[in-house]
Amino acid sequence: MFGDKITLLDAGVITLFSMVVVFISLLVISYLIDLMRVTFNKKDNKAVEKTIQQSPQPVVNTVVEEDDTELVAVITAAIAAMTGTNTSGLVVRNIKRLPDLDTTWSKTGKIELMR
Q: What pTM value is reported for the model?
């Protein structure tokens, strides 16, 4: 089939065969990983289910009231420094904490840049 010269059709057959072999190999590896996950996690899942069923405890949310006067002073000073005005002319009426939308990768990058 393959002689000294390889035609375009022969190259296509080789490429297709190689892609099929790689795909089947990856599929077999995927099934092996799933099989290992199922066999090794059976014991752990049963133990977790038992502990959940044995101790149902209500979740209590406690709100901690903090003194935010220092935080307000720092934010006011930062705003005054950015705008170049005096702090006596600024009034901070509301401070809302925004949810942290950064991923772990971006947090790590920021920390590394600060070093």
A: 0.35
- Report which residue type is found at 78: A
Do residues 80 and 86 make contact, with C-beta atoms less than 8 angstroms apart?
yes
Q: CA 8 to CA 14: how far, in whole Å?
A: 10
∠ CA 41-42-46, rounded to 5°: 115
- Beta carbons of 76 and 87 less than 8 angstroms apart: yes
Place of tokens 């101790």: 55
Residues 6 or more apart in contact with residue 63 via CB below 8 angstroms: none
Report the first-to-last Cα separation within the chain, whole angstroms: 62
DSSP letter, residue 88: G
- pLDDT tens for 41-81 read 766 556 656 665 665 556 665 656 667 788 888 888 888 88
